[in-house]
Amino acid sequence: MVLRGTWWLPLALVALTCAWQCALVLGDADFESVRVLMTKDSSGKAGDPKEKYWPVIVLLLTLVDQIMPWDSDVDVHVSADTMRFLASYYNMTIHTCRTEHAPRGKNYMLEVNPKWVNNSPEDSLNTIDARWIDMLSGVFIDITAVHRTPKRPGMMFCKDDHHYREADLFPLRDSVFEDRPVKIPYNYAELLQQEYGRVSLTRTRFAG
To answer: What is the DSSP letter of 136?
Structure first.
């Protein structure tokens, strides 16, 4: 009776093993494997070195004129602790966002670069630590971790060799961006002027 009642256990273990392996494959897939409409590299480059985790798919150019004319893409910084949390629990997850412009919702994928743990600026091919990707168009927002600078209390840096005073970043301020609540650096005006020059806060046209 015991043998007749448990004959299915080996088959169940095999099925669970196969399902687990499939889940790993799907969970570890890169964006090139799951994107919906993107069919070619629109970056103007003829490929990237194999050491680079992401090939450049497309820059967020269509929104630049509305957001910030001095730069060619949109970037977001998060703390190293936040990036560690995202990498541990949300890597390759898909999120559906519904707005008045997309009432049926649009799908976005959060993909974390496995090389984010190497915070050395010498890893110049992997300065971007994560991306928030529109799965329909391939448009993405770069996400970079900000780390505390060793042996320099009160200083912080990210892999693209930007350096900040912690007092210029924290505490974060509440603001609004594209009609949505966001957190911005405490001393945002000074940081913008350091990056783009003092006229960046007053000049309304660029290269025009």
So the answer is: T
Tens-place pLDDT, residues 173-204 = 998 887 888 898 999 999 988 888 888 788 77
Query: For the whole prediction, is pTM greater than 0.85?
Result: no
E-state strands within 3-119: 75-79, 93-97, 106-112
In sequence order, the 6+-apart residues with CB closer than 8 A to the CB of 152 are none
Amino acid sitting at position 93:
T
**pLDDT tens digits for 57-93?**
333 333 344 566 666 667 789 999 999 999 999 999 9
- Please provide residue 80's backbone torsions phi and psi, each rounded to the nearest 5 degrees: -60, -35
Q: How many CA atoms lie within 13 A of 106 on its CB side?
A: 14
Distances 54 to 30, 131, 141 between C-alpha atoms, Å: 9, 10, 13
Is 147 in contact with 157 (CB distance < 8 Å)?
yes
**What is the Cα–Cα distance from 166 to 155, expressed in whole angstroms?**
5
Dist. CA 132–CA 116, nearest whole Å: 15
